[in-house]
Amino acid sequence: MTEVSHMFINYLLIAAGCITQAFFIKTEHEENYKTAVFQKGLASLMFVLIGVLAWVQNGEQPIIRTIVIGLIFGMAGDILLNLRFVYPENGKKIFLTGILAFLIGHILYLKAIIPLSDGPMVPTVIGALIAAALLAYIFKTMEVNIAYKVFGVFYLGAVIIMTCIAFSNALAVPDAFRVTYAIGAVFFTLSDIVLIFNTFGKTTKFSLRITNLTLYYIGQVMIALSLHFLL
Questions:
Q1: How far apart (Å, rounded) are the C-alpha atoms in residues 131 and 118?
Q2: pTM
């Protein structure tokens, strides 16, 4: 595959994903939840395919394989988080299972990028402190079920530590892969923070839902796209 055709396919996947994501947001707002789940899964498939394309081009690099598997868990998490609206009687269990899928994805992301760091301890400690401060604020100002608290500690800790390590890697060696990945990680973290405040805050706003979903999708696309700079 030539470099031009490679880039063209990526652009097509990004465009298809963004359009599908926009339709998903509209459909979900109209409370057509079954169709929304399908659209969400399809939109997520686009960023997985961007990663798979990099894997096909150079699957010998363990970092590519690991991140692509993380993207697949992200897609599973996407589908599960929206299935809770289709099956509200099991909403809590489905939501927590979705968070678990995302947590596994972030652990895989961490596994991929930690070897790139000369000193992961400092960004890990910084990330843990930021996560602890944010969790303390959330638990103090919002009513959060104990199960959500337990999952929240591990999940938010993982995503913020992953982002801090990615940011540290980009500062140390600002190549295209590390910078693109770090930008994606930052967008991902911001989307999760918006999701938490919109889900567990006093009021749920559609504008914040749009913000959450947009930041998230950009984040995952950037992480998937970063793999192509390793080819």
A1: 22
A2: 0.93
